[in-house]
């Protein structure tokens, strides 16, 4: 009896997937308003330095038009552009927070930014460690592409180092945010493999290039992870030092007014996400007093400025995001299995007919 090979079954599956009516893809939607100044910044510094005076100085507009220069990417004539304005890096943070669940927009945009040569330092140095932290938190709690983003960050570390951006992959932002997310992920998916968890912890640590453990939260996070997943982290991370917990307080502000206090609240949002994570994964009777004090003070400011609790909000979106992904993966797996069975059945019937003809 004729039995189709797995390779043939796979090829038919692939053929059926791609055997669709080819229609031109719709034009990409315009970038959101928040991204416009960031894209303009990228375009400026991705333009050859020798061409910038021609393109961006109004007095050279006529000269540029007579030169008939073409954009190497679009092949369209290069037109004069308005001079770029100074851009605050908080714009990128605001933009990242607008990306909805399941969207590829930010990931594709980030890939474009990191596709240029590391010699264009203005582009690579636009990112700071706080951006990375927001990217990681948003990808985990809201967008749903945590593994893809962190994997891509690992892959681009060498290029960021070539651009001499040595402090980007740090402890207090990069390392702490990934470990905090891993804690939540281990609980949501009920991970219980100490060996695998320790291996992943070592991998995150190996990618840290700036070991600035000044507030001691890294130590508490690693302790929580070890306790949650059943391994002893002591001595497992080379160069990982024990640091006393020290967190910022309002009393340390040089000016005690609403403006400076509001800035304190905004600047410490991600720190609060980490301290709340530590509190959640610690025994109620054993929460670090500095962490407890910081959380209470930050929650008081939430009420003062009528702000929703970002951590509570993230817990809600995390449940929604990862439940959707689990459901989607389940549906895709079922469709894949049904398709393979269907193709296998068709091939068996074809094989039987061929065998009958040969007889």
TrEMBL record:
Residues 335-359 are annotated as: Disordered. GO terms for molecular function: structural constituent of ribosome. Residues 341-359 have a biased composition (Basic and acidic residues). One of its GO terms (cellular component) is mitochondrial small ribosomal subunit. InterPro entries: MRP13_sacc. This is 37S ribosomal protein MRP13, mitochondrial.
């Amino acid at each position: 009896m004729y039995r189709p090979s797995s390779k043939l079954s796979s090829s038919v599956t692939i053929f059926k997937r791609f055997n669709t009516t080819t229609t031109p893809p719709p034009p990409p939607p315009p970038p959101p308003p928040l991204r416009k100044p960031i894209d303009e910044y990228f375009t400026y510094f991705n333009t050859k330095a020798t061409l910038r005076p021609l393109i961006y100085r109004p007095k050279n507009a006529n000269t540029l038009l007579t030169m008939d220069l073409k954009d190497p990417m679009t092949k369209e004539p290069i037109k004069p552009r308005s001079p770029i304005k100074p851009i605050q890096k908080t714009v990128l943070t605001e933009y990242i927070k607008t990306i909805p669940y399941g969207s590829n927009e930010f990931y594709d945009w980030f890939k474009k930014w990191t596709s240029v040569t590391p010699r264009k330092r203005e582009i690579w140095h636009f990112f700071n460690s706080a951006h990375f932290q927001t990217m990681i938190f948003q990808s985990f709690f809201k967008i749903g592409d945590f593994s893809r983003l962190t994997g891509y960050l690992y892959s681009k570390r060498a290029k960021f180092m070539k651009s001499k951006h040595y402090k980007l992959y740090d402890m207090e932002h990069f390392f702490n945010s990934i470990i905090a997310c891993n804690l939540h992920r281990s609980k949501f998916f009920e991970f219980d493999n100490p060996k695998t968890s320790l291996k992943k912890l070592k991998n995150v640590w190996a990618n840290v290039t700036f070991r600035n453990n000044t507030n001691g939260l890294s130590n508490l996070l690693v302790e929580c992870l070890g306790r949650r997943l059943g391994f002893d982290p002591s001595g497992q991370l080379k160069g990982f030092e024990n640091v006393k917990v020290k967190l910022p307080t309002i009393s340390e502000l040089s000016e005690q007014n609403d403006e400076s206090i509001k800035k304190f609240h905004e600047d410490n949002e991600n720190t609060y996400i980490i301290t709340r994570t530590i509190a959640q994964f610690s025994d109620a009777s054993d929460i670090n007093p500095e962490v407890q004090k910081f959380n209470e003070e930050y929650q008081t400011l939430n009420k003062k400025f009528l702000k929703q609790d970002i951590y509570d909000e993230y817990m809600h979106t995390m449940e929604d995001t990862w439940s959707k992904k689990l459901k989607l993966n389940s549906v895709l797996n079922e469709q894949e299995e049904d398709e393979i069975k269907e193709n296998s059945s068709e091939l068996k019937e074809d094989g039987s007919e061929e065998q009958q003809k040969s007889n």
